[in-house]
């Protein structure tokens, strides 16, 4: 029996060969090649487009339809104020360091990572554990026709404790601040790898593309770096659409833009990419999930923060139920999404043995986040974050609501009224007009936005000194303003509450479609043992760019007429197909489509003219069966769209021994 997993392992994975297939079959290519291209920008060709569209379609079905999510499509152009409020203007940056002599710029964390990894490799060479590292590096560079000289791996043995130290730094590489990276560069003597020249200390570089909206140039804006902010700003409309009830989730699929310091590794780090993001709004006091039971037994590989802290990358395998009950994963809703992400990735062709969930360490996570896990996929470039899944708490809605004055809250009628005590401010508004004139509304807004803690402290100030001092942006030249108790009172009052009002927490699964697609390319790609030039993309039929290749055995009027008839049926049934009636040998025609991942081949031969039967070929095993057009198309439909196995779908078809696959 043919086993695809065994076949994939027989010939070691070769990235060069994959890249050549992706290029020759035009899955994607660098954009603007005629103009020398720009790093980090890619165009997708027909095969890439169809594959991406199918992945997105599956995403929509798996998440939006299955979970009843509310889809929105928000603009990519985003005004400055929105991203200032969200924190992106000040914090959405990476650390770069410059070589003042050559002008070269490096991303600091990547540089530290590369240098330490190369030293560890050198240590392995010195210990006799790795023999041909340099030959391999030189060969790779030669094949890629890299202009830059390859940094040679020095065979230098390191002390055992240095090895351990390097490994610990590498396990934590995503979490260092700029200052810490600078310290590591000094400590480990890290320089420009090409020239050995000194580098300037790391500086923050904001990754957003800036632009001006409108002809005056006055309204500053950015191309969005994520789709999330548009979703948050539609929260009230979506809540209303959902009849005021939570939990609910919004979802969005669209392009995002990041001016990466050094785009690299093909589709893995680019400057414009498709994201699919979910914002699941949930009660902060109840993060249970109604459907958690459905996934709780699912076993997954986790790399919790404690493991990484100890310098290890060995994952632990437990069920998501256990991960949540032991509090390794913060709550059920987060756990539910982690499991659903896993199921989605496996469905579209990710190799489950190359998938793990890595927890963010405290210093890697945004200060407001409660917990965060990345789905990482193993590729020839290492483990790559492809989906982030974070509990962002109530941060985003809180900051936008504070900034705009628009309340973004859920109101829940209480079963029984509750007595509460809270701070309440009363403004003597008739005094505000004469004192502040046109700025009076701004000052009033400032007071209306004070939190309970701020009101408590202002009340204390008023009690102790008879006045309060504060600043309001754009009022009194941004200088201190003083008001005494004629203008306001702040009291702690008892109230009967009939409605509970709260800002929901947000659980955010965020998918980079390009990264996932590239990882699937690697996970699906293999070469046939009999002839390694014959490579195959073993995509699951559901996401394969095209489903069927129609091949008339020879150029012949009768055969062409039958294939046109079958094409008509396929078109009517909306099953994507291609006809290959070129003069190439049938083996070659199949082989070209194996590279495109087309799961089925239909051959129309002279027997078809006699009895109306056709052959159906399965891409991976090359097994062929024979049956009527109706039965073969039924099998294709069942396997592709209904998840039926090949064995079950074809059990009534005749096995067909043929030499068609040979040249
Ligand atoms: N430059 C990029 N090119 C392609 N995909 C990206 C890029 N940056 C982010 N993504 C995708 O978007 C998802 C969510 O973005 P997020 O902000 O969590 O990434 P990130 O932590 O900034 O990624 P990294 O640390 O690798 O730069 C990622 O999981 C990834 O799949």
UniProtKB/TrEMBL annotation:
Gene3D superfamilies listed in its UniProt record: 3.30.40.230, 3.30.720.200, Anticodon-binding domain, Bira Bifunctional Protein, Domain 2
Query: Which superkingdom heads the taxonomic lineage of this protein's source?
Result: Eukaryota
Gene Ontology biological process terms from the UniProt entry: mitochondrial glycyl-tRNA aminoacylation
* Cellular component terms per the entry's GO annotation: mitochondrion
Which reaction(s) does the protein catalyse, per the Swiss-Prot or TrEMBL entry?
A: 2 ATP + H(+) = P(1),P(4)-bis(5'-adenosyl) tetraphosphate + diphosphate
UniProt entry keywords in alphabetical sequence: Aminoacyl-tRNA synthetase, ATP-binding, Cytoplasm, Ligase, Nucleotide-binding, Protein biosynthesis, Transferase
EC code(s) of this entry = 6.1.1.14
Q: Does the keyword Protein biosynthesis apply?
A: yes
GO MF annotations in UniProt: ATP binding; glycine-tRNA ligase activity; transferase activity
Domain Aminoacyl-transfer RNA synthetases class-II family profile spans what residues?
179-552
User: Which CDD domains does the record cross-reference, listed alphabetically?
Assistant: GlyRS-like_core, GlyRS_anticodon
Its subcellular locations are: Cytoplasm
Would you identify the family this protein belongs to, as annotated? Answer: Belongs to the class-II aminoacyl-tRNA synthetase family.
Do you know which NCBIfam families this protein is assigned to?
glyS_dimeric (TIGR00389), PRK04173.1 (NF003211)
According to the record's subunit comment, the protein's assembly and interactions are:
Homodimer.
What task does this protein carry out? Catalyzes the ATP-dependent ligation of glycine to the 3'-end of its cognate tRNA, via the formation of an aminoacyl-adenylate intermediate (Gly-AMP). Also produces diadenosine tetraphosphate (Ap4A), a universal pleiotropic signaling molecule needed for cell regulation pathways, by direct condensation of 2 ATPs. Thereby, may play a special role in Ap4A homeostasis.
The identity of this protein, by name, is glycine--tRNA ligase
